[in-house]
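Quick one, tokens below. Sequence please?
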């Protein structure tokens, strides 16, 4: 008589166990996916905000240095600065801050986009002076730049950022 050998259970997983693990893994992944989406959106918003800050820093530093060194003021108004042989202005269509050395030269991009560039002129004592009337009385310039979202379609709209630069003009020449 032939005896049947006792059946040894082989190591491994049954199909039912594999399917249960796959189901649990799918549920965990589905629960974690919205967290990854929120993190990605936050990263994109932070990148856009960083670009706005960088644009403000570049424009404020550049304009401040050029205004301090200006010899002759020609025009100071909201959205436009002209002194010596340089002109800075906001492009109406794009909001970019542009500059050029003369009216004959094409304008070059400096930074942007900006919502506004406001200029206030002050005399030696800090009293307001009409920027368009008597530029020889201007001793200080308050320049306020407001940056807008560089990519408004890139997620939730970001609020505008504003920086104010105070420049004391050199009039010793």
């Amino acid at each position: 008589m032939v005896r049947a050998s006792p059946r040894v259970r082989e190591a491994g997983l049954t199909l039912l166990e594999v399917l249960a693990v796959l189901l649990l893994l799918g549920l965990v992944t589905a629960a974690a996916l919205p967290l990854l989406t929120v993190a990605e959106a936050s990263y994109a918003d932070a990148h856009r905000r960083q670009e706005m800050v960088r644009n403000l820093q570049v424009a404020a530093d550049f304009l401040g240095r050029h205004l301090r060194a200006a010899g002759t003021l020609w025009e100071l108004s909201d959205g436009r600065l002209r002194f010596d042989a340089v002109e800075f202005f906001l492009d109406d269509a794009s909001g970019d801050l542009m500059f050029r050395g003369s009216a004959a030269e094409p304008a070059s991009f400096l930074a942007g986009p900006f919502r506004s560039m406001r200029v206030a002129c002050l005399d030696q004592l800090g009293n307001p002076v009409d920027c368009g009337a008597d530029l020889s009385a201007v001793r200080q310039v308050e320049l306020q730049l407001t940056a807008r979202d560089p990519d408004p379609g890139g997620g939730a709209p970001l609020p505008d950022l504003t920086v104010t630069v105070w420049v004391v003009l050199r009039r010793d020449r």
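The mean pLDDT is 85. The two ends are 123 Å apart (CA to CA).
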